């Protein structure tokens, strides 16, 4: 994150916009650099939980239940799973790699499994059950 003057981002702003009301100084804006600029932010904030199984053959983007997933994200997840080899990969590892919420990862993994690109096996560890994905 970085603090930037208001007029650096909005150079045509009026004085009432960029000045504080309590003190006669300029406002600052906190700028955040995204880890992956190709991830759809509004999709990860979406509260709509409907998943549809419509296949979209245009190859560019896939739209399901109010979420838009870039095909590059699917490819990145697939190559990460394939790189793990015989050990496989859990959804938590993929979530750390991608930097998105668990619902987006779960939907992405569901799409990869239903299209028979990735296989999934259950692994019991004590009282916990993990899903391990193999390519």
Automatic annotation (TrEMBL):
Residues 43-68 are annotated as: Disordered. Gene3D superfamilies: Winged helix-like DNA-binding domain superfamily/Winged helix DNA-binding domain. This is Uncharacterized protein. SUPFAM superfamilies: Winged helix' DNA-binding domain (SSF46785). Residues 48-63 have a biased composition (Acidic residues).
